[in-house]
Specification:
single chain; mainly alpha; Arc Repressor Mutant, subunit A; Four Helix Bundle (Hemerythrin (Met), subunit A); 2 domains; two-stranded antiparallel sheet; two-stranded antiparallel ribbon; globular; WH_DNA-bd_sf; DNA-binding; Tscrpt_reg_HTH_GntR; transcription; WH-like_DNA-bd_sf
Length: 238
Amino acid sequence: MLQSHKFSSAFAEVDNTPNTLTEVTYLRLRRDIIEGKLRPREKLRIEHLKDRYNASSGTLREALSQLLSDALVVNQGQRGFHVAPMSLTDLDDITRTRVLVEGEAMRRSISAGDDAWEANLIGAFHRLTKAEEKLGAREEKDLWEWEARNRDFHEALIGACDSRWLRYVIGLLYRQSERYRHLVISDRTLPRDVHAEHTTIFEAAIARDADAVTEAISVHIQLTCEAIRTLMPGLDIE
């Protein structure tokens, strides 16, 4: 997602081609941080990044400055840029805050949602269901398809929310939580039925039951946190 779209799209990637080298570099760096290719606390040396991202020093500094606003990068004075640290304490804070802001956005979306919102949500859930049916094969292309459909579904849920600031904060927290989820994304050993969770969320949203859908979203978010805690009990990369 480009900087200019952070107030309009919280989860889904906006289908726009980056217009500048800074935007291209920013998106590549952000993806590599979220996916763990650039590790927590790793020093981001401009001279090392130039070859990796085929970018100039100026372009990299601009991209890293944008990542500061995402809280994915920290600037430690004379020590330069580093990938932001991670810890279970931070994950718990992200999780609690996500529950609050996504619940509020969902309530607003249900209140304002019209037939177009409902139709978009039905379509997004159908596409997500089809993608989830393919996940058993564990092929990378199927996982990436599911990732995209999952983002689209959660975007559709809050599609009628009228607060651009809620979208911005939700997107910020979602990308932070994605860093943690990518630590355990390939592990399928936990007894968790994500499709059932999505179905509960969808049915409550279509029924316009604000209390039920916010509770279902809360459970969905917290189960992800619990899964990470189970698989990474010693996580403390600060």
